[in-house]
Amino acid sequence: MSRSDFVAYSTSRYTTGSDLLESVNAASEIRGLIERIAPFDVFNQLSNIQFLILKPDAVASGKITEICQRLAGAGIVPIWSKPLFHTREHEYETLYRYNIDLANAECVVGSIWLARKPYLLGPAIALLVTSYDCAEETVYEKTRRLKGPSNPYLCVAGTLRHDLNACSRAMNLVHLADDPISTIREFLIFAGIEELALAARLLDRDLRPLRTFHYDSLVQLSRMSAALGPVVTDADYAGCLIRTTNKLLLACMAQDYRQPRLELLDQSLPEQGPRARLRIAAKRMAQCNKEIQRFVSNGELDPNDELLRQLVRMLDIATIDATAVGSMVHFLAACGIPLADWDELMIETNAHFGQAVRDALAEEVPVAIMNAA
Question: Which of 56, 103, 117, 144 gets the most CB atoms within 10 Å of its CB?
Answer without folding.
Answer: 56
